[in-house]
Inverse folding.
C-alpha cells in the first residue's frame, strides 16, 4: 500500500503555510474539471439534433461553444500549473532546508557513515521526487480523480444501468492500480538506494583524482564503477517491470470500457432507452476517462518514486542525534577552566563497539593556562579536542568547562565560547567573506577586515580585485595551505572564545609563514585557556602545562618547566630526541 | 556560463549505434505500439455505423468485443517486452555516458581535473545523463509516429479529404510555434540546471566539512545560504515548467479546436446523412492520436534542445576534448564475465636519472606557479624540495608527475623525454602521496591495494614501513576495517600513513612525498625515514619537506622561492651560501 497517511502528514505540514495559493489552485482545478465534463454534453446534443435535422445555426452555435470551453480549459490549465509548481517548489524547498538543518544537527557518528554524495542524493534527489509528488499529486491525482468521479456521476444521468456499470468499472480500475503500485514501490526504493550509493562513490572519485592517477589506480576504480553498475542493472530492469504492470492495467481498463459501451449501448439503443447521441456520449466519456486514468497511472510512477523518497526522507528525519541539545546554562565570561573527570571514550557505531580511545582521563586545566598535548597519532589527542567541542560526549565520566557540565551548556553559547582550528581547512566555493563568516551576513565588514589585518592577510585580500567578495575555489584550489590555515584562524578570531583548541593547527606551514601566525596565536591565547594538540615540540613551547597521552591514558602531566627540568620525565626525554635531530 | 556548441544529432547518432540491435528492436516495438490503436478505431467506427443502420454487413457485437479483447492481450504483451528491452538499452546508454565522462576526467591532469566542484560535477553525471537518456528514449517513437500518421491520414482522406485538411491545418501551426519557442526553452532549462548544480555543490561542500561547520556553530547561516540557492532555483524551475506546460496546452488545444472544426464543417453533412456518426467517431478518435503524435513531435523538438544543453554540460566537464569522446563506444561488461582490472605495465627501464629542465607552469588566470625549474634526481638519491608557503613546491611535484599540464620544459627519464608524464609516472615507475591524501569508502586493505594483488607480504611490509603496524593491530577488524567516506574513521595521521603505505605497496622506483610529515609527530616521522633508508636504500625519493630530519638526510636540497629554484645543494653548502635556506632552517626552531 502507499503510505497514504505519510503523504498526508507531509502535505499538511508543508502546505499549511501556503494555504492561499492552494485555494487558488483548487478553484482553478475545479473550474477546469467543470469545463472538461460539460464539453462532451455539447457533442451529444449536437449529434442528436443533427440526427433530428435541426437548423444549421443551432448546430454551429453548439460547435462554437464547444471550442470556447475547450480553449478556456487550457488557459486554466496553464495557470494551474504555475500555481502547482510554485506550491510544490516552495513546499519542498522548505523540506530540503529543514532536512539539511536536521542532518547538520546530527552528531559526527552519523556523518562518519554517510558520504556527502549520498546526502546530496537524499536531500536533493529524493526531495525532488517529492516535488514532482506535490505537483503531480495535486494536479494529476486529485484533479484527475475528481474528473473521473464527475464523469461517473454524469453517466448515472444517462441511464442507471450505464451509471452502475461505469461506477463498477472505474472503481475496479482504480483498485487494480493501487494494488499493483504497492508491489512496485519497494522495487523503486532499491533502485534509488543503489543510485545513491553510486553517486557517493562518484563523489569520492572526483575528489581524489590526484591520488588515484598518480598511484596507477584508474583501472581499479573503473572496475569498481563497473561492479556498481552490474548490481544496479537488474534492479533498474525490475523497477521498470513494475511500471509496465501499471501500464498493462491501463490498457485492460480501456478495453473493458469499450466492451461495456458496445454491449450496453447496443442493448439499450435497441430498447429505445437511450439515443445514439447518448451512446456516443458514453463512448466519448469512456474514451475521455482513459486520459485521467492514464494520467493517474503515469503519475503513479512519480508517486512510486516519491513513495520510496518519502520513506528515505522520513528515515533521515527520524535519525536522532546522540547529543541532544537541551542545555540552557551559559558559560562564565573570561577564560574557562577545563575538568575531565574519569572520562572514558570509544567511537561506537553500527559496525563496532569501538576500541577504547580515552580511558579514565582525569585532568584539570586552570583558567587562562595553556596546555600542550603530546602523543603519537591515535593516542587520543584529537579525540580530546572533539570532546571539548562536544562533537562527541564522553561514554563515561564527565567533562566540565567553566565549572558547568558541557552537556548542560546552551549550544550557541558553547560555540561562541569554545573555538577550534583543525588541520583540515575546508573552503567553500564562495567569496572570501562567506568563507570567513560561514555565510553569516550579519558580521560587520570592518570587523572582518580588522581580523584579516591582524592575521597579516589584509594586504593579500585587499589586493584581490573584488576584495572580500572575491570567489575562492572549493577544496583548497585557489589558496596555498598556509593561506587556507590563516583563513581558518580568521574564522575563530571573529568569535571571542574563552577556550581555544588548536588541533595540529600549525602543521604544514613553512617556518616563515608559521612565524607570521605565531604572533596571532599568542594574541589569541592571551587571557584565554588554550589546548594545543601538537606533533612537534616547538608547538608546545608556549604551553604552561604539558600532557603526554599514550593509548588514551595519561602518561605524564605537569607544568612544562618542571617536566623539562626533571631528567627522568618523558618530556625531557622527548626534548632530547628533538635536540639529537638538531645536532645530528 | 557559456556552453560550447555541440552537434546533438551527431552525438545522438553515436548513441544509437552503440547498441544497434537493441535499438532496432526498440524502434520496431514502439512503432507497433504507435500503430496498434488503428485497430480499435476501425472497430469503433464499425460499431457506430451498425448502430445507426448506416452499415448492415457489420460483425455482431460479441464479435467486436472479442476482437477488442484480443487487441488488448496483444498490446500488453508487446508493451511488456518493449519495456524490458527499453530498460536494458537505456541503462547501457547512461552507463556509457557516465563511464566516458569518468574515464576522461581520469585522463585530465589529476590536480586540476575539473573546473567544476564535485557537487556540480555530480549533477552532470546524474541530471544531465538522465535528461539525455530520456530524450534518447524518445527517438525510437519517431518511426512509429510517422507510420501511424500515414495510416491515419490515408484513412481519413478516404472518408473526406476536405475535412481532413481543415482538421490538420492547426497542427502545422502548433509545430511552428514549438519551433519558435525553442531558444527560450533552452535558456530556461540551462538556468534551471545551473541552479541545481549550485545547490548540489553547496550541499557537497557543507556536508564535506560538517565538522568545521559544527564547531563554528554556523549551521543556521549555512542553511540560510542553502535556502537562498533553493529560492533561486524555484524561480527558474517554475518558469521552465510553465513554459513547457503552455506548450503542451497548445498541443491539446489543437485537438479541441480540431474537434470544433469537425463539428462546424460536418454540421450540414451530418444533417444530410453523408457523414455518419461512425465517421465522426473515427475523426475525433484519430484526431486525438494524430495530435498526440504531433504533440510528441513538438515536445521532442523542445527536448532535443534540452538534450543539447545537457550534452554541452557533459562535454564541458570533460575538459578540452572532441565532443564525440562522450559517446565513444566501449565494452561496459554489465553482464557476462567481468575482466580483472588491467595489470600493471611491464617495467622496462629502471630509473637511473630523472632530469627536470626548464619546467614552467602557471595556474590559469593566476601568476602562481613555477618558472624555469631545472635539477636532476639520480637513482637512489634522497632529494628534498623546500621553500616558503606559496613558493611552488607542490606545484613543482605536480608538474613533474603530469598532475598539472606544464607549459614549457621537459622531464626526462634516463635521458629520454617523457611525452605524457600523467600516464608515465605511475607504478611501477613512481608513486605519490599528495599533501592532503584521500582515502576511499572501502576497507583499509582495499585502500592500500587499490586493485593490486598482494603477492605475499607486500602489504604487511608496506604497513610496517609506514609505521602503521601498531595502528592496524588496534583496529577492530585490522586491515579489513572500513575507513568510512574519504577515510573519516581514521585520524589525520593514520590517513597520511595509510597513503604512505599505499605508495610503498606499489614498490615503485621513485617515491614522491608531498610533505608527508605534516600530520606526523616527531618520533613517527623519524622512524619513517629511518626505515626508508634501512629497507629501501636503493629507492629514489623526491620529497617536499621543511623539517630538519628530512633536510639532514638529503643528498640534495632544492630551495624554491617564488616559483623559481633559489639554490640547490647539500645542507652544509646551503647553510653557507643560501640566505633563503638559512632563514627557513632557523625559522624551524627545534622541530
Amino acid at each position: 500500500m502507499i503510505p497514504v497517511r505519510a503523504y498526508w502528514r507531509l502535505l499538511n505540514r508543508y502546505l499549511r503555510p501556503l494555504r492561499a495559493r492552494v485555494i487558488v489552485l483548487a478553484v482553478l482545478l475545479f473550474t477546469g474539471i467543470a469545463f472538461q465534463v460539460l464539453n462532451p454534453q455539447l457533442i451529444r446534443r449536437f449529434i442528436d439534433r443533427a440526427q433530428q435535422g435541426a437548423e444549421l445555426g443551432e448546430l454551429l452555435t453548439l460547435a462554437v461553444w464547444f471550442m470556447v470551453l475547450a480553449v478556456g480549459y487550457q488557459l486554466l490549465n496553464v495557470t494551474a500549473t504555475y500555481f502547482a509548481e510554485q506550491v510544490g517548489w516552495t513546499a519542498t524547498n522548505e523540506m530540503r532546508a529543514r532536512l539539511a538543518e536536521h542532518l547538520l544537527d546530527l552528531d559526527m557518528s552519523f556523518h562518519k557513515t554517510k558520504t556527502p554524495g549520498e546526502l546530496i542524493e537524499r536531500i536533493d534527489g529524493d526531495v525532488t521526487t517529492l516535488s514532482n509528488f506535490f505537483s503531480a499529486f495535486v494536479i494529476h491525482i486529485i484533479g484527475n480523480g475528481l474528473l473521473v468521479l464527475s464523469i461517473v456521476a454524469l453517466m448515472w444521468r444517462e441511464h442507471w444501468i450505464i451509471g452502475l456499470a461505469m461506477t463498477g468499472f472505474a472503481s475496479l480500475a482504480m483498485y487494480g492500480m493501487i494494488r499493483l503500485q504497492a508491489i512496485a514501490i519497494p522495487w523503486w526504493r532499491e533502485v534509488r538506494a543503489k543510485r545513491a550509493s553510486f553517486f557517493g562513490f562518484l563523489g569520492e572519485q572526483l575528489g581524489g583524482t590526484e591520488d588515484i592517477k598518480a598511484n596507477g589506480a584508474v583501472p581499479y576504480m573503473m572496475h569498481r564503477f563497473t561492479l556498481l553498475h552490474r548490481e544496479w542493472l537488474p534492479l533498474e530492469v525490475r523497477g521498470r517491470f513494475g511500471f509496465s504492470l501499471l501500464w498493462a492495467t491501463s490498457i485492460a481498463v480501456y478495453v473493458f470500457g469499450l466492451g461495456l459501451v458496445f454491449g450496453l449501448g447496443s442493448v439499450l439503443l435497441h430498447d429505445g432507452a437511450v439515443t445514439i447521441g447518448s451512446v456516443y456520449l458514453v463512448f466519448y466519456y469512456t474514451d475521455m476517462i482513459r486520459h485521467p486514468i492514464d494520467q493517474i497511472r503515469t503519475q503513479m510512477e512519480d508517486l512510486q518514486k516519491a513513495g520510496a523518497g518519502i520513506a528515505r526522507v522520513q528515515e533521515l528525519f527520524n535519525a536522532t542525534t546522540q547529543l541532544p541539545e537541551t542545555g540552557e546554562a551559559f558559560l562564565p565570561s573570561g577564560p574557562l577552566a577545563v575538568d575531565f573527570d574519569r572520562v572514558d571514550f570509544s567511537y561506537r557505531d553500527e559496525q563496532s563497539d569501538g576500541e577504547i580511545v580515552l580511558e579514565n582521563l582525569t585532568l584539570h586545566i586552570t583558567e587562562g593556562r595553556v596546555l600542550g598535548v603530546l602523543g603519537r597519532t591515535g593516542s587520543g589527542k584529537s579525540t580530546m579536542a572533539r570532546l571539548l567541542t562536544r562533537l562527541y560526549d564522553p561514554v563515561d565520566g564527565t567533562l566540565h568547562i567553566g565549572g558547568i557540565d558541557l552537556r548542560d551548556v546552551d549550544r550557541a553559547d558553547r560555540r561562541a565560547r569554545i573555538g577550534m582550528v583543525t588541520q583540515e581547512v575546508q573552503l567553500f566555493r564562495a567569496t572570501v567573506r562567506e568563507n570567513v563568516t560561514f555565510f553569516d551576513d550579519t558580521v560587520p565588514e570592518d570587523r572582518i577586515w580588522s581580523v584579516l589585518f591582524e592575521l597579516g592577510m589584509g594586504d593579500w585580500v585587499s589586493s584581490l580585485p573584488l576584495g572580500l567578495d572575491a570567489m575562492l575555489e572549493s577544496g583548497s584550489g585557489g589558496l596555498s595551505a598556509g593561506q587556507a590555515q590563516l583563513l581558518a584562524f580568521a574564522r575563530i578570531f571573529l568569535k571571542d572564545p574563552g577556550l581555544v583548541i588548536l588541533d595540529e593547527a600549525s602543521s604544514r606551514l613553512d617556518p616563515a609563514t608559521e612565524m607570521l601566525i605565531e604572533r596571532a596565536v599568542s594574541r589569541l591565547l592571551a587571557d584565554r585557556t588554550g589546548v594545543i594538540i601538537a606533533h612537534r615540540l616547538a608547538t608546545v613551547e608556549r604551553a604552561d602545562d604539558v600532557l603526554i597521552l599514550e593509548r588514551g591514558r595519561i602518561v605524564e602531566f605537569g607544568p612544562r618547566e618542571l617536566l623539562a627540568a626533571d631528567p627522568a620525565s618523558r618530556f625531557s626525554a622527548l626534548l632530547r630526541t628533538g635536540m639529537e635531530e638538531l645536532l645530528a | 556560463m557559456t556552453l560550447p556548441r555541440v552537434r546533438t544529432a551527431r552525438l545522438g547518432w553515436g548513441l544509437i549505434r552503440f547498441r544497434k540491435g537493441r535499438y532496432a528492436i526498440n524502434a520496431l516495438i514502439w512503432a507497433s505500439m504507435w500503430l496498434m490503436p488503428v485497430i480499435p478505431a476501425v472497430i469503433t467506427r464499425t460499431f457506430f455505423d451498425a448502430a445507426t443502420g448506416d452499415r448492415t454487413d457489420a460483425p455482431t457485437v460479441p464479435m467486436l468485443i472479442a476482437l477488442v479483447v484480443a487487441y488488448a492481450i496483444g498490446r500488453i504483451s508487446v508493451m511488456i517486452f518493449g519495456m524490458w528491452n527499453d530498460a536494458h538499452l537505456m541503462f547501457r546508454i547512461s552507463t556509457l555516458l557516465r563511464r566516458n565522462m569518468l574515464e576522461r576526467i581520469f585522463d585530465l591532469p589529476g590536480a586540476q581535473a575539473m573546473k567544476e566542484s564535485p557537487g556540480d560535477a555530480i549533477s552532470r553525471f546524474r541530471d544531465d545523463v538522465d535528461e539525455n537518456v530520456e530524450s534518447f528514449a524518445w527517438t525510437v517513437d519517431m518511426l512509429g509516429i510517422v507510420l501511424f500518421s500515414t495510416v491515419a491520414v490515408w484513412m481519413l482522406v478516404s472518408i473526406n479529404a476536405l475535412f481532413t485538411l481543415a482538421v490538420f491545418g492547426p497542427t502545422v501551426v502548433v509545430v511552428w510555434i514549438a519551433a519558435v519557442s525553442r531558444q527560450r526553452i533552452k535558456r530556461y532549462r540551462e538556468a534551471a540546471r545551473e541552479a541545481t548544480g549550485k545547490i548540489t555543490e553547496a550541499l557537497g561542500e557543507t556536508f564535506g566539512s560538517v565538522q568545521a561547520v559544527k564547531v563554528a556553530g554556523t549551521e543556521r547561516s549555512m542553511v540560510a545560504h542553502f535556502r537562498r540557492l533553493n529560492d533561486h532555483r524555484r524561480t527558474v524551475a517554475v518558469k521552465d515548467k510553465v513554459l513547457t506546460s503552455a506548450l503542451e496546452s497548445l498541443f491539446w488545444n489543437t485537438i479541441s479546436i480540431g474537434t470544433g472544426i469537425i463539428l462546424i464543417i460536418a454540421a450540414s453533412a451530418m444533417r444530410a446523412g453523408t457523414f455518419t456518426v461512425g465517421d465522426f467517431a473515427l475523426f475525433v478518435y484519430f484526431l486525438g492520436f494524430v495530435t498526440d503524435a504531433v504533440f510528441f513531435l513538438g515536445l521532442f523538438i523542445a527536448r532535443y534542445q534540452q538534450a543539447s544543453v545537457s550534452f554541452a554540460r557533459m562535454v564541458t566537464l570533460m575538459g578540452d576534448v572532441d565532443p564525440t569522446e562522450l559517446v565513444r563506444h566501449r565494452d561496459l561488461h554489465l553482464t557476462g564475465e567481468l575482466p580483472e582490472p588491467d595489470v600493471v605495465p611491464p617495467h622496462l627501464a629502471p630509473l637511473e636519472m630523472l632530469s627536470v629542465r626548464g619546467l614552467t607552469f602557471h595556474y590559469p588566470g593566476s601568476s602562481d606557479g613555477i618558472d624555469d625549474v631545472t635539477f636532476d634526481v639520480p637513482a637512489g638519491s634522497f632529494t628534498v624540495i623546500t621553500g616558503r608557503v606559496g613558493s611552488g613546491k607542490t606545484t613543482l611535484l605536480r608538474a613533474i608527475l603530469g598532475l598539472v599540464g606544464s607549459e614549457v620544459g621537459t622531464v626526462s627519464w634516463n635521458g629520454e623525454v617523457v611525452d605524457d608524464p600523467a600516464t608515465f609516472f605511475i607504478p611501477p615507475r613512481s608513486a605519490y602521496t599528495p599533501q592532503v591524501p584521500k582515502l576511499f569508502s572501502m576497507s583499509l586493505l582495499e585502500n592500500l591495494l587499490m586493485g593490486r594483488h598482494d603477492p605475499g607480504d607486500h602489504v604487511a611490509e608496506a604497513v610496517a614501513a609506514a609505521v602503521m603496524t601498531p595502528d592496524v593491530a588496534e583496529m577492530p577488524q585490522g586491515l579489513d576495517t572500513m575507513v568510512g567516506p574519504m577515510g573519516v574513521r581514521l585520524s589525520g595521521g593514520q590517513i597520511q600513513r595509510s597513503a604512505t603505505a599505499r605508495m610503498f605497496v606499489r614498490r615503485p622506483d621513485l617515491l614522491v612525498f608531498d610533505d608527508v610529515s605534516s600530520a606526523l609527530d616527531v618520533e613517527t616521522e623519524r622512524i619513517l625515514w629511518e626505515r626508508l633508508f634501512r629497507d629501501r636504500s636503493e629507492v629514489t625519493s623526491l620529497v617536499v619537506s621543511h623539517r630538519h630530519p628530512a633536510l639532514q638526510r638529503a643528498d640534495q636540497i632544492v630551495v624554491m622561492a617564488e616559483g623559481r629554484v633559489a639554490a640547490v645543494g647539500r645542507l652544509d653548502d646551503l647553510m653557507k651560501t643560501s640566505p633563503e635556506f638559512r632563514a627557513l632552517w632557523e625559522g624551524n626552531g627545534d622541530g
In short: Chain A touches chain B through 183 residues (CB under 8 Å). The longest helix of chain A spans residues 218-271. The first strand of chain A starts at residue 338 and ends at 346.
